[in-house]
Fold this protein.
Amino acid sequence: MSENISDTFGQQLRQMRSDVLAQLRQHRGGTIGRAEAAAEAKANESDDWATADAERDLNIALEERESEELVAIDNALKRIEDGSFGVCNACGADIETARLHAAPTATRCLACQEKHEKNSGERPPAGY
């Protein structure tokens, strides 16, 4: 992949990383840590235990998803550094530029991703 294209995706990935970190901070109530956020959420829980459980489960799921997204972004940035960005880790072919624009953390070309999903029953997040 050319240096200009790698720079473009690097900028996009760094912006994505910044956005995800901002979302995590927002979920946690600003700059407080996970423990403080949990204590605050516990203090603010409604008397309806079912609603409180659902809210807590949703917050945990959102935080896990955002953490996984951060790992994927960091891995993509590492691939840019080592020159393997944009190469399918399954077949070694170039990943289509349009696919990378839609999902810059993609590690497989579209054909290999479809095979992977078919074999595993896994559905990726939107945009992959």
User: Anything to note?
Assistant: The radius of gyration is 18 Å. The CA atoms of residues 27 and 71 lie 18 Å apart.
